[in-house]
Every structure is written in C-alpha cells, then in structure tokens.
Specification:
10% strand, 201 residues, 3-stranded antiparallel beta sheet, 57% helix, 5 helices
Amino acid sequence: MPSLADLDPSLRSKRLLSNLLGINSPPRSDGKQLADGLVHLVEKSLLEYEALRSKLISFLGEGAAEDYHRAQDHAESCVNALHRAIEYLDRLRAKGLRRIDGSAYVPRARELAVLREDRRRAVRELRGLIEHIDNDILDGRIDPNEDVTVRPMRDRLLLGGKELKYSEIAENLRLLHAIAVELTVVRLTVSERLGGGGAEV
C-alpha cells in the first residue's frame, strides 16, 4: 500500500489563509465555493487513506481485530471523500474558470487521469456499494455469505464483487492533491518600486 505521508495534510488551513487575503481563489463565488469544497475533501480523503494504511499495517503485524475494523471505517470514509472530491473537481473544471494568465484552474479531462471515466467509475461503483448496500441486501442482490462492509486486503479494497486498488487510490489522491495545493498556495513577493518600496501579494 503506497504511502502518501510526503503530501501536505494541512490544505484547509492554507486555503483559509488565502481566502482571508483574497488571493488564489477563482473570482466567481461559485468557483470559490467549489474550490473550498475540493480542498476540504482532498485533505479528508488523504487523512483517511493514511489512517487506513496505518491500521491495516497494524492489523497485518499484530492481528488485532480492532485494527481491522478501524481500517474498514477509514476505508469507507476515504472512498466516500475521494468520490466527492472527484465530483467537485469535475464541476470546477466544467465552470471553465481561468487564472489571470489565461490558464485553466483545472485541465481538461483527457489531460488529467483522475477525471478519466475508467478511474471515476472504479471509485463511483465502490462508493455506491458502500453507501447503498442496505438496499442491495433488501433486494437480494448480495449473497447471504458476502461481507456487508468493505474488506481491506493487502493491495485493494473489496466489496460485493467490486474492487479498488490502493495504487489507484494513491495515484488519484496525488493528482487531486497537486490541484488542491495550487488552490491553497500563498505567495508573497516583496519588490522595490520607483519612488519607494512596496509589497505585492
């Protein structure tokens, strides 16, 4: 299970600061709110992924059932937040918002693997099972011997015949995190101007 410990987990605090300073936000209020939501969900899914990884490693090492159950809980939260983050990203992309230099806040889907349909489908299908498995049970679509909570394995999550590899989750999170970082970076430039000094933000 790939580690994502090198990624910054404090995105929301930096986004809050950039909002207070009035920088690094799409200028329209709907774009700003979508960006706020995206940053929140990327941070949440990252933290849940790392918690899942920690508990799964503990379970595989010690065999304590509680670690496995906590890994299940973190897996469900991670997949849910990841699905929502991808949806926020797609809605932000669809707005067509651009930076001052004319570049898009979010690249086109064909330029960003996390927005490819195959990637989105894998996350969406597992998330759908997690969220709606009660209906599947009542409608008889789940084998009576099948687990009704997601199963964290060594290299993937399983539920109801659907799977999502940790390597895919990690790659999606890295791509989402790169965009979230761009929406949270606070840059301060101090420059000398004719007639006196000044600061530009």
